[in-house]
DNA sequence: TCGTCTAGCACCTTTGAAGTGA
DNA sequence: ATCACTTCAAAGGTGCTAGACG
């Protein structure tokens, strides 16, 4: 059991830049070591089980936890160097989906991207040794569909697909302007569809079977849910219907729905028991496909070519490994397809894969003011307990919102409210790519960096709405 | 009419304070 | 007085459901 105090501590990255990323950063002294950072997903089998069916995550107005929740293991960090861990949610594509006849179908273009938020692990910053000594859980990360959310939850659109991205930033303190290199990890099996109510009964069953909080809904004969069902004949019918479906699940793979026929191969449907699958096979066979053949094919393009090991497939996909990929190759980014081409295409994969493959594993935050006093300096010779930095003037560095003050000195330090006067809520509502007016200026460097993700915007100012970890916001 | 969303519900786990005994 | 353990209630997470909404 990890002992992390996971109070909310979120960054609102809509307007987090005030200066250019130093172009020399990629060649910094840590570049080599950064390349050794390795992240593995915990409970990959559970994730895969969900993914094979088509993971759905409930989003609610007050915020809902993820299940399975994000939990990772880290290695390769410099034990005494401090790191910040972040998670954000990236749209999988430019579509809105609907659940129709036991399968997901594209239901049109995606809604305009809600305010981009990133969840910062409350232990951040902590030395590498801290991150590596035990798994890092993002249990308390919450998802919401409330665009006016003031709790700092990650805002998503229902019926849209997302996947979490994990970022490791080597930084001495939370608000350090000297954020240096960061590395990004994604796990294909963690992608999900945000929903306000479960669509796929198989997902419901999986959640009930594996989430301890849903134990009361398990069909073990001793619970009382049948009593509730009996109150209403219609409910009974519904339950019977679902029960049939679940029985088919348990009977397994006899007649899986067409939309995920191949993906069900590895799902044994046993209650309360994860399918025991050979890791190698699960990686090589690439059977995650609740989205139909064309989507599966697209998804595969996200993974590094020739990736036939778990590490390559499910973890460190963004680490530059070949000459064909280098950080800050802005001239290449400029060749990215436009959002319209990506979204409008019937084959969304090109857009998605390009966007994924173009995400830089190394990026920087502008060296805002190196002369600013720092409350804590961590170096190889200093590897003591963690103390959080005191208040500093971080104006123009990061806009942060911290809720649920549970960590004195950090969480209670309200640096920034995304809904404060300088950023009225109104600017977050409204259609179109320019719905979130810029609150600051971006430099050409950052603009270029953002462009490389595959979405073209002609207006430089528009990019100021994009998060530090830029992705598609249409 | 239909798809989506929401509030309220019962059931459950988790958590921490209070009580007890060695 | 301290520590370990148990008990208990509150808080909060979960899916279910009916009804609202566009």
UniProtKB/TrEMBL annotation:
Composition skew (Low complexity), residue ranges: 335-357
Compartment(s) where it occurs, according to its Swiss-Prot or TrEMBL record: Nucleus
Any coiled-coil regions, as ranges: none
Pfam families for the chain: T-box (PF00907)
Region annotated Disordered, chain positions: 213-309, 330-387
Keyword line: DNA-binding, Nucleus, Transcription, Transcription regulation
All residue ranges annotated as the T-box domain in the record: 41-219
InterPro entries per UniProt: p53-like_TF_DNA-bd_sf, T-box_DNA-bd, T-box_sf, TF_T-box, TF_T-box_CS
Record-level GO BP terms: cell fate specification; heart morphogenesis; pattern specification process; positive regulation of DNA-templated transcription
UniProt keyword annotation of Protein transport present: no
Basic and acidic residues bias: start-end ranges: 213-223, 236-250, 273-299, 366-375
Keyword flag GTP-binding: no
Molecular-function GO term, any one: RNA polymerase II cis-regulatory region sequence-specific DNA binding
GO CC annotations, alphabetized: chromatin; nucleus
Chief location of this protein within or outside the cell: nucleus
Protein name, per record: T-box transcription factor 16
């Amino acid at each position: 059991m990890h002992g992390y105090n996971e109070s909310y501590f979120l960054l609102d990255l809509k307007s987090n830049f005030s200066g250019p990323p130093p172009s020399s950063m990629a060649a910094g002294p840590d570049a080599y070591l950064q390349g050794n950072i390795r992240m593995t997903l915990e409970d990959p089998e559970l994730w895969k089980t969900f993914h094979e069916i088509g993971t759905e995550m409930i989003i609610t107005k007050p915020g809902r936890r993820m299940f399975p929740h994000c939990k990772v293991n880290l290695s390769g960090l410099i034990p005494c160097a401090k790191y910040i861990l972040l998670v954000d949610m990236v749209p999988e594509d430019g579509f809105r989906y609907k659940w129709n006849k036991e399968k997901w179908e594209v239901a049109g273009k995606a809604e305009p991207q809600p305010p981009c938020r990133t969840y910062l692990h409350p232990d951040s910053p902590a030395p590498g040794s801290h991150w590596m000594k035990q798994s890092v859980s993002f249990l308390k990360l919450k998802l919401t569909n409330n665009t006016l959310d003031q709790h700092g939850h990650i805002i998503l659109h229902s019926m849209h697909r997302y996947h979490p991205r994990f970022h490791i930033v080597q930084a001495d303190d939370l608000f350090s302007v000297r954020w240096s290199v960061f590395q990004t990890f994604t796990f294909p099996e963690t992608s999900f569809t945000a929903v306000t109510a479960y669509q796929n009964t198989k997902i419901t069953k999986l959640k009930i079977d594996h989430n301890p909080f849903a134990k009361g809904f398990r069909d073990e004969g001793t619970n009382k849910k049948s009593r509730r069902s009996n109150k209403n004949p219609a409910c009974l019918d519904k339950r019977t219907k679902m029960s049939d479906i679940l029985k088919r699940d348990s009977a397994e793979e006899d007649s899986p729905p067409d939309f995920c026929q191949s993906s069900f191969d590895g799902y044994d449907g046993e209650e309360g028991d994860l399918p025991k699958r050979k890791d190698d096979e699960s990686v090589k066979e690439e059977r995650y496909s609740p989205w139909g053949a064309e989507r599966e094919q697209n998804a595969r393009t996200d993974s590094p070519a020739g990736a036939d090991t778990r590490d390559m497939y499910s973890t460190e996909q963004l680490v530059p490994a070949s000459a064909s990929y280098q950080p800050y190759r802005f001239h290449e980014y400029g060749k990215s397809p436009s959002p319209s081409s990506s979204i409008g295409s019937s084959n969304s994969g090109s857009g998605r894969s390009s966007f994924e493959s173009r995400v830089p594993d190394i990026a920087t935050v502008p060296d805002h003011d190196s002369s600013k006093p720092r409350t804590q300096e961590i170096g190889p010779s200093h590897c003591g307990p963690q103390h959080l930095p005191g208040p500093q003037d971080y104006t123009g560095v990061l806009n942060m919102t911290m809720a649920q003050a549970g960590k004195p000195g950090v969480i209670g330090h309200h640096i920034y409210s995304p809904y404060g006067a300088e950023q009225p809520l109104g600017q977050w509502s409204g259609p179109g790519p320019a719905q979130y007016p810029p609150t600051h200026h971006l430099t050409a460097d950052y603009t270029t960096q953002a462009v490389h993700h595959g979405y073209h915007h002609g207006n430089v100012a528009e990019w100021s709405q994009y998060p530090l970890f830029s992705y598609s916001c249409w």
